[in-house]
Design goal:
This protein has about 200 residues and is α/β, with parallel strands linked by helices. It has 5 helices and 14 strands.
């Protein structure tokens, strides 16, 4: 975990792409894209069906490690408005356990309009916490400090002729963009969860 300052607050970035905000006892994660694989499967493009379980297992591990009481999802939490309805039982149980235990806020993104079901928590367009606006997509015209997702930033480097990319955080004096946390969005290969 890497600590840094932004907008007068201290944060700790996790390797998985979540952001711990100790003063608020909060965790922020962007672009979970739950049920992305099942969405693509409906179109005939088959991907490993473990993305939601892998993403939620990783998120639960960061929640456990940080001991947070609040969680802010910065949009595109499901890949489409019916994603929660398609969650497999194991993923639904993991998500409901967290949304019941935590003060959970879903910030709506471009994939989220008209959620049919959001599996607990509360829905907001954006929210301000300690003078920092939390939203899905950065607003260039807003001079206030903000945190967002949407762009799925990655750092790419060539190492001995091999291209390697990893999720990363991108920051300016007033903008902080989180990487995609979702296993099919943040990394190219999702881990297969243990049974």
């Amino acid at each position: 975990m890497v600590p840094f300052s932004f907008a007068g607050e201290t944060f700790v970035a996790s390797p998985e792409g979540a952001l711990h905000w100790p003063a608020q006892k909060a965790l922020l994660a962007a672009d979970l894209h739950l049920e992305k694989a099942s969405w693509f499967a409906r179109l005939g493009q088959f991907l490993p069906p473990y993305d939601s379980v892998a993403t939620l297992t990783a998120l639960a591990a960061v929640v456990e490690a940080t001991g947070v009481e609040k969680l802010y999802c910065l949009g595109d939490s499901f890949h489409d408005r019916f994603g929660c309805e398609r969650l497999p039982d194991q993923a639904r149980s993991l998500l409901l356990e967290m949304t019941t235990k935590l003060d959970w806020t879903w910030i709506l993104g471009n994939h989220d309009p008209g959620f049919a079901d959001h599996c607990g928590g509360k829905l907001v367009e954006e929210i301000e916490v300690a003078g920092i606006t939390l939203r899905h997509e950065a607003d260039r015209s807003d001079p206030r400090p903000e945190m967002s997702g949407h762009f799925h930033p990655k750092y790419r480097v060539n190492i001995r002729g091999r291209h390697v990319s990893r999720r990363c955080f991108v920051a300016s004096s007033t903008k902080l963009i989180l990487p995609a946390f979702g296993s099919l969005t943040g990394d190219s290969t999702p881990p297969i969860p243990k049974s």
